[in-house]
Specification:
This protein has 300 residues and is of the alpha+beta class. Helices cover 54% and strands 11% of the residues. The chain has eight helices and five strands, in the order αααααβαββαββα.
């Protein structure tokens, strides 16, 4: 009995190894031997057929997603090209008629147009593959946050809110995605809590192979029952129903965090308000971590 089963089982094991090595395309399940081994072979064959069907369906969905993303990319790039082009034309052709402030504005339009294209390309890639390669060198997050604050300068001035930035650890995550994370979190804090007159605080710390950042405000806060839902696509909390927004910002933050082994969540700020936290798994070496960054640890 054992001999009659050993050879068919060996063949099934060899087929399983071949599937692991070359995939389902060339899978061939032998059905032989005793009643038990034949039944086992038939079950495995049915499983392979089901997996092939699921793989084919997934391939079709991925193709449709890629087509959609390519269409969106084209539609977004189309208006950006003339915006950048007209800014360049006005700056070059009318430089002698414009003052320094006007020329600086045209340069900023051009720079932000290129920056928007870069953001779009990275986010579209993220949408297609779910992951962008980590940079070769760790990113200086303090510079990223300073750039975001500069971009939000007019909004900050209008709200008369103070942004306090503590030392931030470097992290091996693409710069443009980090910019997207902090832009969403800081602009949200300004929008929902800036009118309260209290500062918005940005900080972070490293714990072993995890890096955590936070954006803390002292506004009205988020109800506990809504704290998980606000990270879902198109979710609009009770404090958001009367305000502008797409409902995508926090969902993007969560997706970026998850793409790099982390997560995003919100806690209540002591004394009232929200503290949004984003955590990443980090692969930065000890030598890279120490280079160019402070050693201050912040209480999260």
């Amino acid at each position: 009995m054992l001999r009659s089963m050993s050879k068919p089982l060996l063949k099934l094991a060899q087929s399983a190894k071949q599937i692991a090595k070359t995939g389902l395309a060339a899978a061939s399940i032998p059905i032989s031997g005793t009643t038990e081994t034949r039944e086992l072979g038939q079950v495995l064959e049915q499983m392979v057929v089901s997996l092939r069907k699921a793989e084919e369906e997934l391939r079709g969905v991925n193709w449709e997603l890629e087509e959609f993303v390519n269409t969106v990319s084209h539609d977004l790039r189309t208006p950006l090209t003339p915006i950048i082009g007209f800014a360049q034309f006005l700056r070059d052709e009318y430089a002698h008629q414009l003052d320094v402030q006007a020329l600086d504005c045209l340069t900023e339009i051009e720079n932000q147009g290129y920056r928007m294209i870069a953001h779009m390309e990275d986010l579209l890639t993220l949408a297609k593959v779910g992951y962008l390669a980590r940079p070769d060198e760790p990113v200086d997050v303090e510079i990223v946050v300073q750039q975001v604050i500069l971009e939000l300068k007019q909004t900050i001035k209008k709200s008369a809110v103070e942004i306090r930035q503590d030392p931030l650890p470097m992290v091996s995550v693409p710069e443009l995605l980090l910019s997207q994370v902090f832009h969403n979190l800081i602009s949200n804090a300004i929008h929902y809590a800036g009118s309260q007159g209290n500062p918005i605080e940005v900080g972070g710390e490293r714990t072993y192979n995890k890096v955590q950042f936070y954006v803390m405000d002292h506004g009205h806060g988020v109800q506990e029952k809504e704290r998980e839902g606000i990270f879902h696509v198109f979710y609009r909390g009770s404090t958001s129903k009367s305000t502008k927004g797409t409902g995508l910002g926090l969902a993007i933050v969560q997706k970026i965090a998850q793409a790099y082994g982390g997560r995003a969540w919100v806690d209540e700020t002591s004394g009232g308000g929200c503290t949004f936290r984003v955590e990443f798994e980090d692969t930065t070496s000890t030598k890279q971590r120490d280079a160019g960054q402070g050693t201050k640890q912040n209480n999260l």
